[in-house]
Amino acid sequence: MEWQLLIPILLVVALIVAVGVYLWATYNSLVALNVRVEEAWSDITVQLKRRADLLPNLIETVKGYAAHEKAVFENVTRARAETLAAGSPADAGVAEGHMQQALRSLFAVAEAYPQLQASQNFLQLQQSIVDTEDKIQASRRFYNGGVRELNTKIKVFPNNLFARRLGFTEREFFEVVDGAAISEPPRIQF
Fold first, then answer.
1. Sequence ranges of the domains in the chain
2. pTM of this structure
C-alpha cells in the first residue's frame, strides 16, 4: 500500500524536476543568445565607427583634387553623422542606405581624376574602406544570425509561454531600409 502512494509522488517530483531542468536550460540558452546578439551589435557599431573615422581623411584627399564637388562632400559628411548617431538596428539600416549612396557618389567623383586614382594616400584609404565594408557585412550577417536564433527560441512552444515574462524580447534585424542602396556596392576599384 505504501508503494502505491509512493509511485505517484515520485512521478510528480520527477515531472517537477524535469520541468525545472528544462526551464533552467532554456533560460540559460536565452541569456547566452541575448549576449551573443549584444556582442554582435557591438561589433557592427565598431566597424561603422571605423568607417566613419576613415571618411574625413578620404574626403580631404578627394577635396584636394575636386574641391568644387561640395554637395558630394556634404552628403558623405551628413551620412557619416547619421551613422554615428544611429542607436538601433532600424536607425542604422536607414543610415547605411544613405552612406552607401554617399560613398557611391564620392567614388564616382574620384573616377574623374586620374591623378587622385594614382595617389598612394587615396589608394590606402580606399583599401581601408573596402576592408571595413567587408567587416561590416560579416558583422551584419553574424548579428542577423544571432537575432534569428534568439527570436526563434523566444517564439517556439513552450518557450513562448514564459520567455517574455522572463524579460526576453525579440530583437530587430539589421536591414538596410533602401535595399537598392546596397544592391550594388560602391565601385571603389580603379
1. 2-183
2. 0.75
